[in-house]
Amino acid sequence: MRRTVSREELRSLIGTTSPPSAWLRIDQERIDRFAEATGDHQFIHVDPERAARTPAGATIAHGFLTLSLIPFLLHETMAVPEGTAMAINYGLNRVRFPQMVLVGSEVRARSGILAVDETKEDRILVTSEVTIEIRGQEKPALAAQALMLFLLGRGT
User: Fold this and answer.
1) Strand 142-152 with 106-120, pairing
2) What is the CA radius of gyration of the chain?
């Protein structure tokens, strides 16, 4: 269930961190489907036999696959302003991939609100620091500043 909050409560969440999402297992089928969708068939992602001979020792998820999981992973834990008709991925200020995600790994996301800007009466731009963690690993798979634009009132 989505976490709906008032505008005032959303502003009060600046500097706080959301609860973590559920863990998601990254299997070879998901990696292969992403490769097919993007045309990125580099062997380190799609050829388990060749990838086993690399320092990684197995296939790895595409960095952009990990990035693309942000909306899915945060869907349940992200604070959403009351009256939101639509949420739009507005962009990223910074993205880093400190650790490879090996096939079979489990990942989850955490986010913390850095800024809340009411750009217009019916628009709220939220900047969040997002981290995607790998179960059992110290370094995260991803660290990014993500921008989400919430459009209020239309169609709600």
Assistant:
1) unpaired
2) 17
In the beta sheet, which residues pair with residue 36? none
Task: Identify the pLDDT of residue 119.
Answer: 80
Question: Whole-angstrom Cα distance, residue 58 to residue 50?
Answer: 8
Q: Exposed (0-12), middle (13-18) or buried (19+): which is 14, by Cβ within 10 Å?
A: middle
Q: Nearest to residue 107, comparing CAs of 45, 26, 29?
A: 26
Question: pLDDT tens for residues 25-78?
Answer: 999 999 999 999 999 999 999 999 999 999 999 999 999 999 999 999 998 899
Would you tell me which CATH number, out of the four given (3.40.50.1000, 3.20.20.190, 3.10.129.10, 2.40.128.110), belongs to the domain 3-25+60-152? 3.10.129.10
Matching residue, tokens 């045309």:
39
Q: Is there a contact between 31 and 24 (Cβ–Cβ < 8 Å)?
A: no
